[in-house]
Design a protein that fits this description.
The chain is α/β, with parallel strands linked by helices. Helix content is 39%, strand content 17%. Strands 3-2-4-5-7-6 form a 6-stranded parallel sheet, with helices on both faces. Helix 18 links the parallel strand 15 and strand 16. The structure holds thiamine diphosphate (TPP). Thiamine diphosphate binds next to helix 18, helix 20 and helix 22.
Length: 563
């Protein structure tokens, strides 16, 4: 059947199961918007294309599906860049559709022409410029396949205006034919057996759960491995939600702002099993001193990750779930009570609620803990980037799977609210919180308009410290408190909420925190709480950038103590 390119694209999207698109129109995409209402696809009009990409990212992660964003040529496409870079670094399957000037204009510096494929090449898993409507169906089929298979990632399809408008025969391909693209799913059996042997000899084994566990859905397999081999488990920032927080073998967050006991365990372990994670610098610190006593087993679907940062004794390339299913057949039951007791001895007791309530100013972890305590299951928490992100990660104590969405690799401020929007659309049954700093939230304020127009029930918590807090912390520690360009003005968030028709509460006393969280949860619709927290509170522990575990600053007292 013949149809215009715009309809071919929509037919393809429907066949790929797309129900929601985040976008903003422009001259070259009007032909697509003209026919979009004919198809069972909901278009969510964002207020900035960066937020379309972040929303598609949140949608993809929460829904375990492919997220789709749509932008016009030129500035629309360039606005997507940050969102695509974030999705790329965090291995999130997103298909970005951009309009392009008509084919006969390409290369003429036409109005709103940019080389979108060129600009996005290093931050996408693959990209296409479609020259003819007859190529659209194959291209879309391939794009979705590439985005969701192997190590997931964003794929861009750039479509000139005339390709939307001209007709071609429509046949949707049943299969893809990509001879150069064959991701490895099952690990090499010899390597898997070697990993089991190494684990059997270990006296101080340790596992680190990364994002790959959530992506591959290996929750049960990780648990079986941990319980058989008696492994203590740590999580990376994006590994949160991959292994139940309340499990007795869960020792939480490691790395730059990870727990003291977690980092000490890395320092002492003799076998380190990295599961679907990439040993990035926020996890390892100084590479030459990372896990100095350990033989490393690294499971990852992307062969490029193996040996990239740390020397690997046993590399296993494959899908985490499939590899662990196999590994579990060979792993010997073990008992590491002494090692576990040693890690336990490093643990500092968690603060009690009374600690928060007795303080004069609100402690930033307090609202985070209230959110975790009060929100009905299932919860999904998205964060922005900065100190609040680290507190939200450190104190995360929920057991739900796939409950945590954060811009880990790129660390893009402005991620929290739009990704929450996407997450809520993918998981309407979930209580979705965006935990933001006052800096990052001010980058996303325009999307308040979107959540009202589209009636997206997202709860927003601003940890308002009057500063770009994480940068202020570095200025405090390493630049003699020279607070240049970090104090920031904040609007009256209650009035801001009123302007958008969103109920909002500002609190600045510890005693009012729980009530504000409860009020936001009780409201049937988007709601905002602005918590004015202690302005100069620092995130501890901290391993300064490029330093080793022995350089870890454990507390404010330790940092300020005379040498
Ligand atoms: C787009 C972008 N610009 C700059 C930065 C650098 N940066 C990292 S954390 C941070 C401070 C964030 O402040 P805020 O949102 O108020 O959160 P807080 O650290 O106070 O919790 C900045 C500026 C970034 N990560 N992303």
């Amino acid at each position: 059947m013949e149809m215009i390119g715009a309809r071919i694209l929509c037919e393809c999207l429907v066949r790929e199961g797309v129900q929601t698109i985040f976008g903003l129109p422009g001259g070259v995409t009007i032909p697509l918007y003209d026919v979009l209402p004919e198809f069972p696809i909901r278009h969510v009009l964002v207020r900035h294309e960066q937020n379309a990409a972040h929303a598609a990212d949140g949608y993809a992660r929460a829904g375990q599906t492919v997220g789709v964003c749509l932008a016009t040529s030129g500035p629309g496409a360039t606005n997507l860049v940050t969102g695509l870079a974030s999705a790329y670094m965090d291995s999130v399957p997103v298909v970005a559709i951009t309009g392009q000037v008509a084919t006969h204009f390409i290369g003429s510096d036409a109005f709103q022409e940019t080389d979108t494929v060129g600009i996005t090449l290093p931050i996408t898993k693959h990209s296409y410029l479609v020259h003819h409507p007859a190529d659209l169906a194959r291209t879309v089929k391939e794009a979705f396949h590439i985005a969701r298979t192997g190590r997931p990632g964003p794929v861009l399809i750039d479509i000139p205006k005339d390709v939307f408008m001209n007709p071609a025969a429509f046949v949707y391909p049943q299969t893809v034919d990509l001879p150069g693209y064959k991701p490895t799913y099952s690990g090499h059996i010899r390597q898997i057996k070697e990993a089991a042997t190494l684990l059997a000899t270990a006296r101080k084994p340790l596992a680190i759960v990364g994002h790959g566990v959530t992506i591959s859905g290996a929750y049960q397999e990780v648990r079986q491995l941990v319980e058989t081999a008696d492994l203590p488990v740590l999580n990376t920032l994006l590994g949160i939600g991959g292994f139940p927080q309340s499990h007795p073998r869960n020792y939480g967050f490691l790395g730059m702002h990870g727990w003291v006991h977690a980092n000490k365990a890395v320092d002492e372990c003799d076998v380190l099993l990295g599961i679907g994670m990439r040993f990035d610098d926020r996890v390892t610190g100084k590479l030459s001193e990372f896990a100095p006593n350990a033989k490393i087993v690294h499971i990852d679907i992307d062969p490029a990750e193996i040996g990239k940062n740390v020397p690997t004794a046993v590399p296993i390339v494959g899908d985490v779930r499939q590899v662990l299913q196999e590994l579990n057949k060979y792993v010997q039951p073990a008992d590491h009570a002494d090692w576990i007791a040693r890690i336990e001895s490093w643990r500092t007791p968690r603060v009690q609620e009374s600690y928060y309530l007795e303080r004069a100013a609100v402690s930033p972890a307090h609202p985070v803990e209230e959110i975790y305590k009060q929100s009905p299951a299932p919860i999904v928490v998205t964060t922005d980037v900065g100190q609040h992100q680290m507190w939200a990660a450190q104190f995360f104590n929920r057991d739900e799977r796939n409950a945590w969405i954060s811009s880990g690799g790129l660390g893009a401020m402005g991620f929290g609210l739009p990704s929450a929007m996407g997450a809520k659309m993918a998981r309407p049954e979930a209580t979705v919180w965006a935990v933001c700093g006052d800096g990052g939230f001010q980058m996303s304020i325009p999307e308040l308009s979107t959540i009202v127009q589209e009636q997206i029930n997202v709860k927003i918590c601003i940890l308002n410290n009057g500063h770009l807090g994480m940068v202020r912390q570095w200025q405090d520690f390493f630049y003699k408190k020279n607070y240049v360009a970090t104090p920031i003005f904040n609007p009256d968030y209650v009035k801001l909420g009123e302007a958008y028709g969103i109920p909002a509460w500002t609190v600045n006393r510890p005693a009012d925190v729980a009530g504000a969280v409860a009020a936001a949860l009780a409201h049937d619709g988007p709601a905002l709480i602005n918590v004015e927290v202690a302005q100069e509170e620092n995130v501890y522990p901290m391993i300064p950038s490029g330093k080793a575990i022995k350089d870890m600053i454990e507390s404010e007292e330790a940092r300020l103590a005379p040498a």
